[in-house]
Amino acid sequence: MYVTGASDGNHTTGTTYDYATIKYPSSMPSPIRLIAQIVGNQLVLSWTNAAFRLQSAPAVQGDYSDVSGAISPHSTGFSGTQRFFRLKAN
Length: 90
Fold this sequence. Notes:
The protein is mostly beta strands. It is built from no helices and eight strands. It has a three-stranded antiparallel β-sheet, with no helix packed on it. It has a three-stranded antiparallel β-sheet with strand order 6-5-8, with no helix packed on it.
């Protein structure tokens, strides 16, 4: 990583450093697993930390929105369109 000291709007000049420090807030939760199981004709999603909420989107890079009322474990059928799921910290 290179960090430089000054910019003229188009080019950056100045002292170059070969290190960087990245700090995260202490309140940031640890990553958590989203476990998916097929039970009969249902997809059952579960997670262990209630501080995370389940979200869904029609495409992996799509606009995710909260799954209304979802708590772990959450069951959903295979009918309808393709969906992708993720967990997001509250």
